[in-house]
């Protein structure tokens, strides 16, 4: 027998059912029981899909109402004490307040889950943090799965990764000091799971793919010696990178099995050739949507099967959280681009691929010969397709001018020219980009896509929304305006729809955080810009006001990171293609009189390789691609960029190397913690630290914003400080948006008068 299992499943449902139910619950339109019933139904569907594909174990504990790390904070009693909640008796309403904030407390800080586009809620650890076990989240899901007749394998993030992903708060200390008090809590939780009769427990330690300090690595033997006393078998799961350098350590741990990501790091398999326990081979890509060549996968696995026998398990490389639900519903894509459709695999198709592999390993390839032939045909079709490569793209990149990615003059000279015509007051205010995407906007877009609204009527509706946004900003007295992005469905999808080399799905949603889902474009071929994408919208907005209008683009690294990217050429080359295509748009905006242009790069930090040894190469090509996106602009054109929910402390030279005239960053949830690093580094250009959290509906108090701005003024010279929210306002409602911005502007004017 070959054991086949899943590390984790998408949570939101095939058509984002959980998202819509959550948001209705938050609006008071359905009861908590309604939400719980829908969640139970989604879990049962997920489990049945795994069972139908002959998975030997069903993943449980991976379903969450918001975030699996928030669930773990509750399970270990590590929720922030500042909320005053009891983790043992936490209500669902209080759970959501931890994630979204309330009138008295800002939400738990959010940042990227390793190098993915998923966001987790960062645990807040204090020197006196007292852990307390509450395994109900995991126990209840085991019981549900067993009641449905499934063999459950609970999934929980391990103690070292959990502790590593958190932050120290309050009195200075090293959170590693909390490990000895955390491990007994884990033992208590795992014991509760074992008492439910599970045979295996999956413990995820993806932090092993990072450059962990030796002190943390040295802790693994003693930690797992304690956890292994639990009366269940432990599968230690690693993913997102190679752990070959820790092979001796991992082979010595008292666990019953080890999972390796053999998609991200196939080379690491050699280091575990003599592993004498269960080896779970992650051979199906859990982070991208390309169909596997199953013959190639079997070429890898068959020798392993011969050596390991029943100790060989097969699985995706990581949780399938990062892939859309089901390709079969993409009938539009199948009709429009059948070749591309045949190259893809979503979650359910990946589960089926593993089922085919399991059958081939147990019964021989002949038992699934037709399926293997179809897999090979798809791989051959893609390899030989003439729709992927464009000679003109390669030629343009090969013939870029020398120093194409360098500005004509240094920042000190540029900023004088920019300030001369901008004529902005001290502490200029702006918005990051988007304004609320109202029901009316979404309805108009939906009707237009269905053919129920003409192009002329749709554009008239969008112009009406833009005009409303401009008026509201003028009434608030913002200094640099934006057009609000009413016409944009998503900051990446919008541009992908207008660039060649991209394709789109209808239901290819993946969770970004909480109820926020994104539908990443598919980059399958060489990228070009056939025609202007944003110019006429920005021109229209500028025609409505005498104030400066800022053009808004998404940068090449973020478009790359937030898409499903082709894997037949290097990512660096794809990114460079996107940067060059965007440069055409930037120059057209400049010609149209839009001379403040923001090129958002919120994903630049998340693209960092997990190993520091690989950082320099990534930062070199990512920085070049960003600078290419504005190549050729004049000195008096002001380039902005925005970055959010990332730690930049260790890559500030590269951030400065982007040479944007103004950078805006998320800082409110961390109480301006990030800005301190910019100050210590002496960041040379203008900075706009976010002064309130846009992910919460609460209206910040004036004293909160004043506190943050006064902290910022201690770090950034007043002449170089901008004032703005943390991020775009797309997900907010108009009432709270206007109230939030009004507080921000009033506080700014108060400080502006004081500083003048």
From TrEMBL:
Binding site for 5-methyltetrahydropteroyltri-L-glutamate: 16-19, 112, 117, 516-517, 562, 606
Enzyme Commission number: 2.1.1.14
Taxonomic lineage of the native organism: Bacteria, Pseudomonadati, Pseudomonadota, Gammaproteobacteria, Pasteurellales
CDD domains associated with the record: CIMS_C_terminal_like, CIMS_N_terminal_like
Binding site for Zn(2+) 1: 642, 644, 666, 727
Keyword Isomerase attributed: no
KW Metal-binding (keyword) present: yes
Active site per database record: 695
Binding site for Zn(2+): 642, 644, 666, 727
Record text on cofactor binding: Binds 2 Zn(2+) ions per subunit. Binds 1 zinc ion per subunit.
Any one GO biological process: methionine biosynthetic process
Pathway terms, separated by semicolons: Amino-acid biosynthesis; L-methionine biosynthesis via de novo pathway; L-methionine from L-homocysteine (MetE route): step 1/1
Cofactor dependence: Zn(2+)
PANTHER family: 5-METHYLTETRAHYDROPTEROYLTRIGLUTAMATE--HOMOCYSTEINE METHYLTRANSFERASE
Keywords: Amino-acid biosynthesis, Metal-binding, Methionine biosynthesis, Methyltransferase, Repeat, Transferase, Zinc
Family: Belongs to the vitamin-B12 independent methionine synthase family.
Name of the molecule in the record: 5-methyltetrahydropteroyltriglutamate--homocysteine methyltransferase
TM annotation in the entry: none
């Amino acid at each position: 027998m070959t054991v086949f299992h899943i590390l984790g499943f998408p949570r939101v449902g095939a058509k984002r059912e959980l998202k819509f139910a959550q948001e209705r619950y938050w609006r008071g339109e359905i009861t908590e029981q309604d939400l719980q019933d829908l969640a139970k139904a989604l879990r049962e569907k997920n489990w049945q899909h795994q069972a139908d594909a002959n998975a030997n174990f069903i993943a449980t504990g991976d379903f969450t109402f918001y975030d699996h790390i928030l669930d773990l904070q509750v399970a270990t009693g590590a929720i922030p004490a500042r909320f005053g909640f009891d983790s043992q008796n936490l209500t669902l309403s209080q759970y959501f307040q931890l994630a979204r904030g309330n009138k008295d407390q800002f939400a738990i800080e959010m940042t990227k889950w390793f190098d993915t586009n998923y966001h987790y809620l960062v645990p807040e650890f204090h020197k006196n943090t007292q852990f307390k076990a509450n395994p109900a989240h995991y126990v209840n899901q085991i019981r549900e799965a067993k009641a449905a007749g499934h063999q459950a394998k609970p999934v929980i993030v391990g103690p070292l990764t959990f502790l590593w992903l958190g932050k120290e708060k309050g009195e200075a200390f090293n959170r590693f000091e909390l490990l000895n008090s955390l491990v007994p809590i884990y033992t208590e939780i795992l014991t509760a799971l074992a008492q439910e009769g599970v045979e295996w427990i999956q413990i995820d330690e993806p932090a092993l793919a990072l450059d962990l300090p030796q002190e943390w690595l040295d802790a693994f033997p003693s930690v797992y010696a304690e956890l292994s006393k639990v009366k269940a078998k432990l599968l230690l799961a690693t993913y997102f990178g190679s752990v070959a350098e820790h092979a001796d350590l991992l082979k010595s741990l008292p666990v019953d099995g080890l999972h390796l990501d053999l998609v991200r790091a196939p080379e690491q398999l050699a280091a575990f050739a003599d592993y004498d326990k269960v080896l779970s081979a992650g051979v199906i890509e859990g982070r991208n949507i390309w169909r596997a060549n199953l013959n190639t996968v079997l070429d890898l696995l068959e020798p392993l099967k011969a050596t390991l026998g029943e100790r060989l398990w097969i699985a995706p490389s990581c949780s399938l959280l990062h892939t859309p639900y089901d390709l079969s519903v993409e009938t539009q894509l199948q009709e429009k681009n059948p070749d591309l459709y045949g190259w893809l695999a979503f979650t359910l198709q990946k589960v089926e691929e593993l089922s085919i592999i399991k059958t081939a390993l147990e019964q021989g390839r002949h038992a699934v010969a037709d399926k293997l032939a179809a897999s090979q045909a798809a791989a051959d079709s893609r390899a030989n397709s003439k729709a992927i490569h464009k000679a003109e793209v390669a030629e343009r990149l090969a013939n870029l001018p020398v120093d194409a990615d360098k500005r004509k003059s240094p920042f000190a000279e540029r900023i004088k020219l920019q300030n001369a015509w901008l004529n902005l007051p001290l502490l200029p205010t702006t918005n990051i980009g988007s304004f609320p995407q109202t029901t009316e906007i979404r309805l108009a877009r939906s009707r237009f896509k269905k053919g129920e609204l003409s192009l002329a009527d749709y554009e008239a509706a969008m112009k009406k929304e833009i005009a409303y946004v401009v008026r509201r900003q003028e009434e608030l007295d913002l200094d640099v305006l934006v057009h609000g992005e009413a016409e944009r469905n998503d900051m990446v999808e919008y541009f992908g729809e207008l660039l060649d080399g991209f394709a789109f799905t209808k239901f290819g949603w993946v969770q970004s955080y909480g109820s926020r889902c994104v539908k990443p474009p598919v980059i399958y071929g060489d990228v070009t810009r056939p025609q202007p994408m944003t110019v006429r919208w920005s021109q229209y907005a500028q025609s409505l006001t005498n104030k400066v209008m800022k053009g808004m683009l998404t940068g090449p690294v973020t478009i790359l990171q937030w898409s499903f990217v082709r894997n037949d050429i290097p990512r660096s080359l794809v990114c460079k293609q996107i940067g060059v295509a965007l440069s055409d748009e930037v120059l057209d905006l400049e010609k149209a009189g839009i001379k403040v242009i923001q090129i958002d790069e919120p994903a630049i930090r998340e693209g960092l390789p997990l190993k520091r040894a690989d950082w320099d190469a990534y930062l070199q090509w990512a920085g070049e691609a960003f600078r290419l996106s504005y190549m050729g602009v004049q000195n008096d054109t002001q380039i902005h960029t925005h970055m959010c929910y990332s730690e930049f402390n260790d890559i500030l030279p590269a951030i400065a190397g982007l040479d944007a005239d103004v950078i805006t960053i998320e800082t409110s949830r961390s109480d301006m913690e990030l800005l301190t690093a910019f100050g210590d580094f002496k960041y040379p250009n203008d900075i706009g630290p976010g002064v309130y959290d846009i992910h919460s509906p609460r209206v910040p108090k004036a004293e909160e914003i004043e506190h943050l701005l006064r902290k910022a003024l201690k770090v950034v010279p007043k002449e170089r400080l901008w004032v703005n929210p943390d991020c775009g306002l797309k997900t907010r409602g108009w009432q709270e948006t206007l109230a939030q911005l009004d507080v921000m502007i009033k506080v700014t004017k108060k400080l502006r008068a004081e500083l003048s």
